[in-house]
């Protein structure tokens, strides 16, 4: 704040000094900072429990300023209007560097003066500096809507002491001066913030909530006796700055706030996981945690719950999914490793670490960095297969250090040693640099296809039974039933005769001894041991006399 000598001025009456100066500056196409003001007069208005409106109050005839009990009992409220002169500064006399602080419920206000303030006490007498400072503090109070000339005895006493302190050259540290000494309310019940969702978090590390569940409850304080704050407002149960309330941005799309005189309730609008980082509170269907242990595994019990779980553990010596955890969700993303005896089930599963040899994963789509466990899915993408087992429809593996694959179609980048691949349609490999690998075409080795065949047989049997009845009673259903049976029989035929159209392709030359096997529908097998050389794709061809394994000379006679 600056005290100056002025070139021109305008006198106005206002309740909001900052707004009035801003409007005046805008009219003159200047910045607000280019204007200052003086207070010429302060008019105080009061309203009691007996009044309908605020009335001008002078000289304290009812002794409200000295009798605080009377003031509170009659519910006195204050408003002040200021007659000010807005002026453009030309010379700076006093400049204060300060901040303003308030106590609970804004009952009292303080100014913190910084030693960087410009106070020219060496060129003024102590009384002159005191009056300059008093004038300046009242201007600061008025600009911040703090009552002026009321309950300010502490301010004046402290200001006198500060002036003496100033002339002793001791203003080297920040100093606190009271601006307003209000009336503290008597609290019969303190406010309380209950974080209900944290109770769930303590049990399960994460807080999964249902729609309509209470997340946070703020119980407002109850005042046994009212108070008065620095702005002239009565502090009752209806007034509180709610300092103990939740200080965070609330996502209105996922959280509903219900408030009355006594409480403020934060309720979830959707099912999901509570996300709280001290700055924001919201519900998300994406769960992010550092790790999950067996006693914390009760997260989501239904696959179709539209929940995405992300488990992230930066310490590579600790499993993100601990031993024995069972986790089911629509989407699961694990940044770390999977512990022993754990079971993960999801539609979409992504694991950035390694799966334990005694772990199980079930998914529709799986993307795993290092696989050592047992995986069942529709489509699998594996970066490194390290002895793990895969049951899937389609499998893509970048590199293999052993393991077993059961699938209809398999694609592998680099195979080293001790890998067994059982497929029904195709096996495609870029490089086999090791030995003792088995690449076999045989639908019987694939459990999912055996299950599908059993299902097809049962469906065909049921339809044939229904067809027998239709032939006797409902002829119109006969063509429809026959068509359904034919389609199912075609599906079965494609599976049991899949070896006839299957192919094994190894793009680069083999380095050693590996085994290629085709098993026919009648369980006859064509097996070939590879050499260190390049081979064209392996497939079988049936003639009148033989079934031949190309590109080798292996063959077996056809049945007559």
Total DSSP helices: 7
Rounded mean pLDDT is 87
Low-confidence stretches: 1-7, 294-305
Percentage of helical residues? 10-25%
Strand content: 35-45%
Structure classification: alpha/beta
Strand order of the largest sheet: 24-25-27-29-28-26
Largest sheet: 6 strands, parallel, barrel
What is the domain total for the residues?
Answer: 4
Number of strands: 37
| Gap between N and C termini | 111 Å
Radius of gyration: 42 Å
Which shape, going by the Cα principal axes?
elongated
Protein name: DUF342 domain-containing protein
Pfam family, one: FapA_N
InterPro entries: FapA_N
In short:
The chain has 560 residues and is of the alpha/beta class. It contains 7 helices and 37 strands.
Question: What would you say this structure looks like, in words?
Answer:
The protein has 560 residues and is α/β, with parallel strands linked by helices. It folds into four domains: 2-181, no CATH class; 189-224 and 242-284, no CATH class; 285-377, no CATH class; 450-497. It contains seven helices and 37 strands. Helix 6 packs antiparallel against helix 7 (478-496). 27% of the residues are buried. It holds the Pfam family FapA_N. Residues 100-278 form the Flagellar Assembly Protein A N-terminal region domain. It comes from Candidatus Sulfurimonas baltica. InterPro entries: FapA_N.
